[in-house]
Amino acid sequence: MSDPESEPSTRMNMIQAINSAMDVMMGRDPDVIVMGEDVGYFGGVFRATAGLQSKYGKTRVFDTPISECGIIGVAVGMGAYGLRPVPEIQFADYIYPALDQLVSEAARLRYRSAGEFTAPITVRSPFGGGIFGGQTHSQSPEGIFTHISGVKTVIPSTPYDAKGLLIAAIEDNDPTIFFEPKRIYNGPFDGHWDKPTQNWSQHPAGEVPTGYYKIELGKAKVVRPGEALTVLVYGTMVHVALAVMEEAGVDAEVIDLRTLVPLDIETIEASVKKTGRCMIVHEATRTSGFGAELSALVQERCFYHLEAPIERVTGFDTPYPHSLEWAYFPGPVRIGEALKKIMKDA
Amino acid sequence: MATDRVPDHLKPNLAPLSLYVPEPKFRPGDAVDFTQVPIPPAGQARRPDPADAADSFIDLAFDLVRVLDDEGQAVGPWNPRLSPDTLRAMLRSMALVRAFDERMFRAQRQGKTSFYMKCTGEEAVSVAAAHALDYEDMCFPSYRQQGLLIARGWSMVDMMNQIYSNTADRLQGKQLPIMYSVKEAGFFSISGNLTTQYPQAVGWAMASAAKGDTRIAATWCGDGSTAEGDFHSACTFASVYRAPVIFNVVNNQWAISSFSGFAGAESTTFAARAVGYGIAGLRVDGNDALAVYAATLWAAERARTNQGPTLIEHFTYRAEGHSTSDDPGQYRSAGEPTAWPLGDPIKRLKDHLVALGEWDDERHAAQDKELAEQVKAAQKQAETNGVLGHGLHQPLDTLFDGVFEEMPWHLREQQAQMIAEETASGRPWARK
């Protein structure tokens, strides 16, 4: 692996970093192809694939019919041929028609064929809310995918991580779901929706190497070291949780999981054993969400170190609302209340 | 407010709405009469040039391409004019498939495996296709195309090892019997989920085209599973990108206990699905090996010359149950298989060779005997590697292999837990 520190870099937002990851990989590997609704000439509804078709041609970057089942099924077949497809599902909310191809095919192919056939595909999909997308453009379905044996689930929280993780996912020989937190495509978000938005140009992780580098899948990142409690978080909520901890002046250790499967259990375990408190924050609905898995793991491994019940801060078990979006969103108020509870006896 | 609605006082004159639920013609105990099934004479269907536009022969989606007539003669423009050697090779493969099926069905009944599926009556569909395709072409089969492997000369012992999930099973006991995967023979891993292989075949074909390859893909599904969304996604993608793929719909009339009417067969043909997608569609006598061969070769030529996909409906009949898990006597008339108007595919090809003076009953009987012996010998050899349920054929810890390329910690942990539990339990297999 090259040292990204010594490579030329530039300011990028998350879209540009994701675009750069695909550009770099298409340049390195002629078997990498990009497909999805509107990804070709137009460059994607979020512009993530802008310029790729004109650079690599229509047989490597192309629009598809509006059929998520077809997109993933075709990608599995291309993978069987020997290609390394990077299909885009325009919104994570639209991924459900592709579930059978993901669950029963892509995820199971290596196992059921004893390694004769594999599905080295990376499914990119914008997910999460906070953009007034209503219930069909805001969901966080990562818990559905972490429940499936045979797929990896990756969620970046910065442009730098997005590029490095996406390159690692594309190079990985197993199917990977790569959920992109669209609320923070253009800048980090502290959860205060009524304040002016930031952009990545002021954030250190907005400085992104222009060339190849990767961030190993399955490695979390301690984004804020601390002693008082551990906050497990990923995607948009990393920035919201960080802001709440800063504002509260609590010495929290904030861990950006980055990959949900495989999970970096060592980093989690070491931190919770150190702090004795664990808060889990995700935007997805609560019941059977990934937070439930995290909570169980922490309880199994760190029970005798815990000084307070684990706190889960999540979206509600409702569809993602439109007008009441910020009432659903597990923002500073909900995280703040959980913080008070978990720190009560500290 | 102006309205065109039926006035309330007239409503009593309308019959109430009624829901139509299809019902097959014959149920157990019914006398079977298939005279309502239209069977055009052999040799009648026209053969367009493979370069013709798909919309110029829409009639063929409603016709029936037949080559072998009732006298065992090969007639009409679709006659592929195969050499006697090729005809004999196809006959041999078809008879071998039937012998293999008989033996393995019995093995399941003897408790040597959990599951089996025969393709009796449908042997021509896969055997003739395998002969018409190039060996390098990629097949995405459903679970009833064992004929592809047999016709491609794949080892029966290897197939049986998979059926027995034994120590030599190339799939390491991970897959249900008959869900073969043989990359070397261009045979994609079979899924139990229906029609998922359709868009995958399109993707493979698109990749082949994008890479400037010469190989094409072929895929198979049943009449019932054309109802799956994957089928329609695949047709759309294949049409849009003119993918070099052959879609085979094996219309064997039955999807477990549901007759083809539940997939729409009362309203139109399955080949007619092609028309709506603007792709070439053919309806073929699936019990006529020469018709299947000719249609496949024709479709392959279209695919190889960048003229895109072809959908071939193979009109045939599932002569036995869906699998070892159902009894067809419970839902359809026992008279159906013998009354099927298109006969038995093996007998029809045999009669043709006899009519040509290239075969006779004695040779046929001798061949059947020889093939039965061959299958028996293969079975004997496969059973030296074990049968399902008798002993531990794969080391316990292999249960976790192949979920990912590299085993992550959570699987390693579960694996260690399982080994520890099994060791502590003292179960016999843990001591192996």
The value of Rg of chain A in angstroms is: 19 Å
For the termini of chain A, the CA-CA separation is: 43 Å
CATH architecture of the largest domain in chain B: 3-Layer(aba) Sandwich
And the CATH topology of the largest domain in chain B?
Rossmann fold
Provide the spatial order of strands within the biggest beta sheet of chain B: 1-2-3-7-6
Strand percent estimate of chain A? 15-25%
Mean pLDDT of chain A: 97
Counting structural domains of chain B, the number is 2
Oligomer: heterodimer
Number of helices of chain A: 12
Give the radius of gyration of chain B. 24 Å
Family (chain B): Belongs to the BCKDHA family.
Domain Dehydrogenase E1 component (chain B): 92-386
Cofactor (chain B): thiamine diphosphate
Catalytic activity (chain B): N(6)-[(R)-lipoyl]-L-lysyl-[protein] + 3-methyl-2-oxobutanoate + H(+) = N(6)-[(R)-S(8)-2-methylpropanoyldihydrolipoyl]-L-lysyl-[protein] + CO2
Structure description:
The complex is a heterodimer of chains A (346) and B (432). With 346 residues, chain A is α/β, with parallel strands linked by helices. Chain A has helices at 14-28, 52-56, 68-81, 99-106, 109-112, 142-146, 159-171, 236-248, 265-275, 290-302, 325-328, 332-343; strands spanning 9-11, 32-36, 61-63, 84-88, 122-127, 152-154, 176-181, 207-209, 221-224, 229-233, 252-256, 259-261, 278-285, 311-315. In chain A, the strands form four sheets. In chain A, strands 9-11-10-13-14 form a five-stranded mixed β-sheet, with helices on both faces. The radius of gyration of chain A is 19 Å and the shape is globular. The model of chain A has no long low-confidence stretch (mean pLDDT 97). With 432 residues, chain B is an alpha/beta fold. Helices cover 36% and strands 7% of the residues of chain B. Chain B has helices at residues 84-109, 123-132, 146-151, 156-164, 197-210, 229-241, 273-277, 289-304, 336-339, 345-355, 361-383, 409-425, and strands at 138-140, 217-222, 245-251, 254-255, 258-259, 280-285, 310-315. In chain B, the strands form two sheets. In chain B, strands 1-2-3-7-6 form a five-stranded parallel β-sheet, sandwiched between helices. A two-stranded antiparallel sheet of chain B has the order 4-5. The mean pLDDT of chain B is 96.
